[in-house]
Amino acid sequence: MHQYLFFIGDFPIRAYGLILSLSILLATATAYFLAKQDGRWHHHILDMGIYCGLAGLVGARLWDVFFFDWDYYKYHLWEIPFVWQGGMAIQGGVILGAIVGYIYTKRHNIDTWAFADIVAAPAVIMGQAIGRMANLLNGDAFGRPTGGNFGIIYPPTTLAYQVYGDQPLWPAEVWEGQIDVIIFVLLLLFRTTNHAKGQVFILYAVLYSTARFFLEFLRGDYGTLLFGLKSAQLTSLTVIIIGIALFIWCGLYGERINEPKKHGKQK
């Protein structure tokens, strides 16, 4: 892994920032393809990619600062913008990005739930998968020690090495990125069914939260918060419970995507 790809003079080009930017660009490209394929809203994708991408970065950083590392940042407020040090919580990014996306769809008379199903959910999880590559190259979002002679050994310049030294660590961020790709495919497959509006996005939230809950047992970059669980696990449990209830409700009472609609006489 390489934290620094190259230098322009004394200015470092960091793998973390480059790959993170690439994740936003490719998520936006995925969204454009899906919207173009559907025939709706593709001319809004670039604007939404910019707004939601920036909101996602801000939300991810603030979520990490206040929920994971506030004990440190309350004494180092000036370091909050230093995202290259690591510390981006995807849950916060998705929440703030979703809020901005909701506001955008309402202002432009876009069907929010249909847009979330067709475009947002598959594109977001693809962006998350690529984003985990940035974590690996930066040496953050790392796992805890495996206790054996297998695992990832991070270089001395990384936060993982500062915490655990040369102990082999579980590849938590690698596995999460791989699971995200699987979720991406499952969402595309589910879109082919006669599902109710909103169920694709809800399924994304439930599947990712389930994966994140169990992967957190392997994470070693922060401690527990309540009942032996980490803050990300508590958030995941909340999303899973609410998501399953909403998924069932939409399936029973929601509007079916392929359901014939009543129209008046065409002229």
Automatic annotation (TrEMBL):
Coiled coil: none
Signal peptide annotation: none
Keyword entries, A-Z: Cell membrane, Lipoprotein, Membrane, Transferase, Transmembrane, Transmembrane helix
Superkingdom in the source lineage: Bacteria
Cell compartment(s), UniProt: Cell membrane
TM segment ranges: 13-33, 45-63, 83-105, 201-220, 232-253
UniProt pathway: Protein modification; lipoprotein biosynthesis (diacylglyceryl transfer)
CC annotations in GO: plasma membrane
GO BP annotation list: lipoprotein biosynthetic process
Membrane topology label: Multi-pass membrane protein
Residues binding a 1,2-diacyl-sn-glycero-3-phospho-(1'-sn-glycerol): 132
Sample GO molecular function, one term: phosphatidylglycerol-prolipoprotein diacylglyceryl transferase activity
EC number: 2.5.1.145
Pfam families: LGT
InterPro entries: Lgt (IPR001640)
Keyword presence, Lipoprotein: yes
Cited HAMAP family: Lgt
Function: Catalyzes the transfer of the diacylglyceryl group from phosphatidylglycerol to the sulfhydryl group of the N-terminal cysteine of a prolipoprotein, the first step in the formation of mature lipoproteins.
Annotated family: Belongs to the Lgt family.
Name the record gives this protein: Phosphatidylglycerol--prolipoprotein diacylglyceryl transferase
Annotated organism of origin: Thermosinus carboxydivorans Nor1
